[in-house]
Amino acid sequence: MPKEYLPGETPEQRKQRLRKLKGWSKNPQPIPAPVVKSTPKPTPRQVSNNTLQRSTPPKRIEEITKQTTHPSKKVAFVLGNGTSRASIDPESLLGKGTIYGCNALFRTFSPHYLIAVDTKMIKEISTAGYQLKNSVWTNPNKYTREISGLNLFSPNLGWSSGPTALNFASLNGAETIYILGFDYRGLGKKNELVNNLYAGTVNYKQQHDRATYFGNWQRQTSMVIKRNPRTRYIRVVEKAEYFVPENLIGLENLEHQTIFKFKQNLGIS
């Protein structure tokens, strides 16, 4: 018997044993594939283009008072864009109160708060990326909710930018509010032409266009003043013969002050 035979092993047993040693099998089974643990796909990096990220959730008007305050928060300046404020440099107001500006003011000056509710203006502001480094407030809608860096009012008053800014300042703790550039009338002999410092520029009417109806602005302004009887409102007007809308007549907490007197009281030129 050859040496490779095991004791008592038959030839057939030997063949089977050798086959097993060589990895043979009468009915070979497929070798199972190695188990590879699946790993989740890596999460894509956050999009670096901030304008594609969503804006902050709308904030209730009562929560606005929790925003970062300014050294002279009790005094506020609300800058509309009527031509009457042309001789007042916004830079001269810095350090004298919290400044609330509207719409295209951001092109040349950065107020503490910029308020814009017109979609075209929000597009201009966000395209410039201004809201990523400055405080911009607007109304919530499908468009504004998709823009990063915007602050959204809640509730949405549906008002124009000027009265919205005035309401913001009133609820943000200001005790004395100066109202600038709220002219409530057009230019020209019949007050029929557009009255805006930015007339003739992008997103604004031309100088020769008819003035936008300002009845809503008057009504909204008067609503703010009436709702805040303990707040002192000072409307800065161009000269002594100023125009007072019917809605603003007889409001005890509203007074009118000429630009000359305004500059004199604040010590600005």
Summarize the topology.
Blueprint: H1 11-21, E1 59-60, E2 75-79, E3 98-102, E4 113-115, H2 119-127, E5 136-138, E6 150-154, H3 161-171, E7 176-180, H4 215-227, E8 232-237, E9 254-258, H5 259-266
Parallel strand pairs: 1-6, 2-3, 2-7, 3-4, 4-5, 5-6, 7-8, 8-9
Key terms:
5 helices; 9-stranded parallel beta sheet; alpha/beta; sialyltransferase cstii, chain A
Number of helices: 5
CATH class: Alpha Beta
Strand % is: 5-15%
CATH topology: sialyltransferase cstii, chain A
Number of structural domains = 1
Question: Segments where pLDDT lies below 50 for 5+ residues?
Answer: 36-54, 65-69
Number of DSSP E strands: 9
In spatial order, strands of the major sheet run: 1-6-5-4-3-2-7-8-9
Quaternary class: single chain
Overall shape: it is: elongated
Question: Quick check: average pLDDT?
Answer: 83
Helix and strand sequence: HEEEEHEEHEHEEH
| Main sheet: strands, sense, barrel | 9 strands, parallel
Give the terminus-to-terminus CA distance.
124 Å
Q: How much helix, percentage-wise, in residues?
A: 10-25%
Structural class: alpha/beta
Looking at CATH, the homologous superfamily is Alpha-2,3-sialyltransferase
Name given to the CATH architecture: Alpha-Beta Complex
Radius of gyration: 36 Å
Notes on the protein architecture:
- By secondary structure, the protein is α/β, with parallel strands linked by helices.
- It has one domain: Alpha-Beta Complex (sialyltransferase cstii, chain A).
- It is 19% helix and 14% strand.
- It is built from 5 helices and 9 strands.
- It has a 9-stranded parallel β-sheet.
- The radius of gyration is 36 Å and the shape is elongated.
